[in-house]
Hints:
Chain A is an alpha/beta fold.
Amino acid sequence: MFSIKRALTKAPAVGQSFRALATAAAGAPKTMTVRDGINKAMEEELERDPDVFLMGEEVAQYNGAYKISRGLLDKFGPKRVVDTPITEMGFTGLCVGAAFSGLKPICEFMTMNFAMQAIDQIINSAAKTYYMSGGKLPVNIVFRGPNGAAAGVAAQHSQDYSAWYGAIPGLKVISPYSVSDARGLLKSAIRDPNPVVCLENELLYGQSFPVDEKILSPDYTIPIGEAEILREGKDVSIFSYTRNLNFCLEAADIVRDKYGVEAEVINLRSIKPLDLPAIFKSVIKTHHAITVESGFASFGVGSEIVAQVMESSAFDYLDSPMERITGCETPTPYAKSLEDFAFPDTPTVVRGIEKVLSLGAWA
Amino acid sequence: MLRLGSNLRVACTRALPRNQILRTLATEVHANTKGEPIDKETVRVELPADSFEGYMLDPPELTYDTEKSRLVKMYKDMVTIRRMEMSADGLYKAKKIRGFCHMSTGQEAIAVGIENAITKQDDIITSYRCHGFTYMRGASVKEVMGELMGKRCGVSYGKGGSMHMYGKGFYGGNGIVGAQVPLGTGLAFAHHYRGDKNCCFTLYGDGAANQGQVAESFNMAKLWNLPVVYACENNKYGMGTSIQRSSALTDYYKRGQYIPGLKVNGMNILATYQAAKFAKDWVAQGKGPLVIEFETYRYAGHSMSDPGTSYRTREEVKSVRSKRDPVAHLKQHMIDWGIATEKEVKQFDKDARAYVDSQVKEADAAPAPEAKMDILFEDVYVPGSEIPVLRGRIREDSWSFAKKGFAYR
Lengths: 363, 409
């Protein structure tokens, strides 16, 4: 049994994508892919502010390695949409320097794995500069790119960096799930005077989500630091972000059908800051909680959420310890049979719910 | 063995024993630079033939006219920086300055020459050896010394320290070797983007010249024709490693490969000034980037923790200081060319000393930032766009910007 909403949010099979055609005659589309959502958001921000520019590998003539910047070169020209050589440390530093001067760069990494080459410029040159300068030098910059695994791209192309960036004072870190997230958060990020890291997901780019006039408005922004209750529930809280929410929503349906359990699924949307009030409120309401992320368990986003809950008064409302669902502790294997064990999926989320609620094997 | 005479050049790639000057462009005696007053205000300077060496370009003219007042100003600038750095040396030893402190004594001609050649609309970015540049770009000595001593009156309100000083058109003060080079390229990118005629002087040392991100920057600057002057302050040592031991090619002005380069005697303010004007002119004409190598020397060690004698001899330091000091040379020129009398120059020295000493005194007496949470947490984010809570050392000490108080008390 599928609800309309589930049909739209379920990850499409490989090779399919629901492309919504937005023609003037037909009016606003009802669904849109995340890809088109990000594309349109960048287009609108480039239009709105002449100081905004996009820089990265293949963003211009290639139309984006994942076609996120399709059409932007044609519309805005090579001054605003700039192809770079394969020199992350160099062009990231260049973007930060341009931000020092008052421009508003969008620095795209083909994947966040490659941002490791530039991480000194992100952390030491961007994140810390406002503080070190005593407030004299703001750095209005967005670093964005796909984060976490794709499919079969193996160990060096599959890491999730949420926890690394989430630790740094001076950065904000966002991770959109839906089209409304992608548009609203990215626009806020571009307009934010601080450095923002926007962690996208390659497998989500082709996924469609419902949109409406409000979401499609050029001034649609979502405040950074606000989580979203994707699915209301009363028995267990699931804290997650980005593509893993697909599995969380499916798991929620499964435990409702199997046990009559109503899970509350929270889309964090923002890793730094975490929406702690929303997290605590949900825990107080449901008394049980799990976290779901693709990153490694050690020192991860889930670790931080569990620690925050434990240190807060929300801890007193827990009826069982929290559980983290994470990536497994290996470099990502290539063979599908093994890669299937590397990252969370729906059955694993179900097992997590069962554990904290003492159901199934834990009954 | 010292090579005398300005036309001989020591081969740069030959390894030399430690007790020799590794590479000199000119073992300069002050009389090599000539000056001729042309009228009441102007002097015609004639630089020695070996002041410049060009790579894929014609070097600047050796002869140029400049105002006598310009020379006086440059002298005062250099003496002030020298005095300021010497004060910092003393304060560091008195433990009033903590952490890292990198002196630029001996290298004054570069900061002063560049500033006198550019405008306030141009940018400068450099490494941690930045105090002289901070002063030249408009900070007072009190603000520089205040920052070194961690006072609220410091240029970064005490938050940055020696390596993180900023100002209008001055982007640090950068602690990570070489990181400033892509940043400077970005500053130039912004000028290019906006279509203004300004440039960015991006300074780095001989040690940083080997960084990969420098090569990455050169590539983009040349590809996109960016108005950036890459200026290598080659003081012969990257910390304790001589250029011979760090670099397969020590001709740093040629490292740009496809970017024209200029080697300059960085111990002669009259050469550095001319070179900086040439460079500014070059980029203003839209010729793209330029690489300059200022051949210079630092009298002090790498930083205050380094006596600077385990990898070079005291004789070498003494020799450079006695024969090539930029301050002493300009002093002698001004006297020889009738621009100032010995008495007047002595007065310049006294005035600079008095200014620096009084500014140091004021900075020393000034308060540190108050040990308050709102100051600790200030400027992590731009005011009005902070994240709601920043964690203290313990949860109880976490700070709420909305409450302007502790978040969980």
